[in-house]
Amino acid sequence: MTTPQEELLAGTRRALLHRIAVAQAEERAPSLVATVVRDGEAVWAGVRTSLEGNAPDGDTQYRIGSLTKTFTAVLVLRLRDEGVVDLGEPLEKYLPGTGAGEATIAELLAHTGGLAAETPGPWWERTPGSLRPGLADVLGEHPLVHPVGRRFHYSNPGYALLGALVEKMRGASWEAVLRREVLEPLSLHRTGVRPQAPYADGWAVHPWADVMQREPAEDLGRMAPAGQLWSTTSDLARFAAFLAHGDERVLDIGSLREMRRPAAPAEAADVASGYAYGLGMEVRHRDGRALIGHTGSLPGFLACLVMSVEDDVAAVVLANCTSGPLLFPVAADLVRIVAEAEPRIPAPWRPLREADSAVLELVGQWYWGTLGFALRLSADGLVSLEPLSGKGRGSSFRSNGDGTWTGLEGYYAGELLRPVRRSDGSVSHLDLGSFVFNRRPYDEEAFVPGGADPEGWRGVG
């Protein structure tokens, strides 16, 4: 964790302030507040405002819109981890009669359930939730606009259904469950469904004149799990630290990694823009850096939380305007500024405490056909198979405790790596999902599917 002596350098702090000042001034935001988190601790906070003598700070509440969805997703993953629900099962199994078809819980989390983007009737973000008292009012007569599971289509009603699922399984309101299971354990005391002073007013800024008018702040009712929450940069900094590192009282790091992993088939435009969606979290690529988090907007407010897991740097940016600064580029730049100006210092290398001789026998060079690979054992107990040329498929593998290993990434994710031994116990070859790796390419003395040319290696005569 960061210590007080590790505060950001003066030049870094000025660069961060300059970035939010440009965003607030050029995009005409009434106010903009930001926080940067490094190694799980808030290390910088900045604010720019047009209201003299009334500057917001890290304790000032803003509406965070669809960032609420990440909180709802955490509640659903908790249900899964407790064995209450199965993400692969249709919602209908647990919450019958919604009309959402056979969409699974995972598909709703990933916006691949085929549901419409918005509710029928008047604009739900600017009208009271009492106009939509039931799920039928949220979904309408024709809730499906795409085949279930076939494409990514962002759906706000889908998260209303997930909130209803939480209520059904817990026997309490979404708000009560959220407070008990997430907000209180993480000490997010300034996050909730209704504003508590001090809070920012929501404004609409005229597109062609430097004037403003207030936006309504409606209670969204059934749509609350999709976008109701108010929060502060201080609370969201703690939430970002949780999303990066986990907290056993709420959700372990394994489930959070699952949330951060792309789960939805991306459209061509999304691939081009580096955008993907996990289970309640957005996955973006910018400046060669993977950024995880979520954006949000409601009339009068914009919000963004992003983090680079590799750099262990996160940024939260909030503004009180309906349209104005696109907060993802601002937050992404805050992460980049810190990561590049003050790169993360790696932990000291330390060797394994104990080394299994059976595993040490496997490390070193292997060949799949004519492609060379290196099998390495790291201090975290994982083995990695890496192409020597830098081109080809590689993965880390986790031990299954029985002499086999399971792939964790890419093409080999979930695939079994198995050392095959001869009758004398020595290793003949590695079997990886039926691919055979030998110590030498097409060794005539080794097991080679299809056999090796009996004439061996030769030149062209």
TrEMBL record:
Gene Ontology terms for molecular function: hydrolase activity
Assigned EC number: 3.1.1.103
Domain DUF7586, chain residue ranges per copy: 356-439
This protein's UniProt keywords: Hydrolase
Entry-linked SUPFAM superfamilies: beta-lactamase/transpeptidase-like (SSF56601)
Taxonomic source organism: Streptomyces cathayae
Protein name: Serine hydrolase
Residue ranges of every copy of the Beta-lactamase-related domain listed in the record: 23-339
